[in-house]
Design a protein that fits this description.
alpha+beta, NurA domain-containing protein, ten-stranded mixed beta sheet, about 375 residues
């Protein structure tokens, strides 16, 4: 028998068949979240954070962006970073300065995203270094990770992509040099020094995988920062959390356990994910935690360099509280105000690259630059 069914008819049938099952699974996940979330609070893995009021601080936000465009069978790219410095006095906000960095060049298609990510980290550290040297701010936010994942290391047996290898070496060197040169001037080693904060939205699984460990054992306890006050007697109640977490999924789970103005317990990322570079910076300690600045904001991952006992629960609460207070605008792309203002500066990057690409194509057609080069070569010979 021949079938004669349109896509609309097939979709209607599938809706009737699968809708009850989808709703049932989502309701089960909600029930699992309602059951498990209080256990995390009782154990101290999720905690409320006080926000300062009024706010008196100086903060710098560094935002990065990269854009590509096609040209003559290849690609051009522009990578830029912008920094916005804010002065907050009794909740009154004013701009105190700005800075920027940019690079434009051609780029291969292979490893394009990794090379642009490396450029973003390098430029962010360039602006952070100038902010520290000029004593611009108490808080310096970077919208990039503070260290590199081992997945960004270029293969040593591929000599064809020299641009990617050069970008990795330059980024590796500037991160290592920054922390070697300024570590003694930065918090927590200098109690009155600036705090370098890396913000990201990935790695939801960090606190989830910590919860799946038996934290009563040394292997599990090594992930949680020792200076965090954890109720280890409550860990037995988390034995059944693994099945609930796996059923809900990491992203939805972190959304479910983090309420407004809460954070997770800080964990050692260099224990949880040891394959990071540069090695000397990772040896100082990499601390991670998730926080949520409001009900309408996305959970964010905060990275800090250092370890216990330098980083205490009180000092982490102070940094997270100020970060939440500076996150004045909600939404899925929420970020501290200086980072948002820096992001606005980067809006002109893509239109500029399009104009630059048209200029390159025009000059290639005119061949005027080539004629000038050849004329100079003839004169030299």
């Amino acid at each position: 028998m021949k079938t004669n069914r349109t896509l609309a008819q097939t979709l209607a049938v599938q809706t009737q068949v699968h809708l009850p099952g989808t709703i049932g699974r989502l309701l089960k996940q909600i029930r699992d979240l309602e059951r498990v979330a209080p256990l995390f609070v009782k154990a101290g893995l999720v905690r409320a954070v006080e926000r300062p009021n009024p706010i008196d601080t100086r903060a710098s936000g560094i935002a990065t962006h990269a854009s590509t465009t096609r040209t003559i069978g290849g690609f051009l790219y522009a990578a830029a970073a912008a920094r916005c410095d804010l002065l907050v006095e009794h909740n009154a906000v004013s701009t105190a300065g700005q800075d920027s960095a940019c690079e434009i060049d051609d780029i291969n298609y292979e490893n394009q995203s990794k090379r642009l990510a490396l450029s973003a980290m390098r430029q962010a550290y360039e602006l952070a270094e100038r902010a520290v040297a000029e004593e611009r701010s108490r808080l310096i936010f970077l919208d990039t990770p503070l260290v590199m994942d081992r997945g960004m290391v270029p293969p040593s047996d591929r000599s064809s992509d020299k641009g990617y290898q050069a970008a990795y070496r330059a980024t590796h060197d500037i991160i290592e040099t920054f922390w070697a040169r300024y570590r003694a001037r930065l918090f927590p080693w200098n109690p009155s020094g600036p705090v370098i904060i890396g913000l990201a939205s990935q790695r939801f699984g960090a606190i989830v995988q910590s919860a799946q460990q038996d934290l009563r054992l040394q292997a599990g306890r090594s992930q949680i920062l020792p200076t965090e006050r954890i109720d280890r007697d409550q860990f037995a109640a988390l034995e059944g959390a693994r099945e609930a977490i796996l059923g809900v999924g990491e992203r939805r789970f972190v959304h479910g356990i983090l309420g407004s103005f809460t954070r997770t317990a800080a964990f050692r990322m260099n224990v949880h994910a040891p394959r990071m570079e540069p090695g000397p910076v990772v040896d100082l300690g990499i601390i991670g935690l998730h926080f949520r600045a409001g009900q309408t904001t996305e959970p964010r991952l905060m990275q800090l360099v250092g370890d216990a006992p330098d980083w205490t629960s009180e000092s982490i609460n102070e940094v997270v509280g100020l970060t939440m207070a500076l996150t004045a605008v909600g939404g899925t792309a929420s970020a501290p105000l200086p980072v948002q203002l820096a992001e606005r500066e980067l809006g002109a990057l893509s239109p500029f690259l399009e104009h630059y690409g048209r200029s390159v194509a025009s000059e290639l057609k005119r061949r005027e630059i080539e004629s000038i080069w050849l004329s100079n070569f003839d004169l030299a010979t």
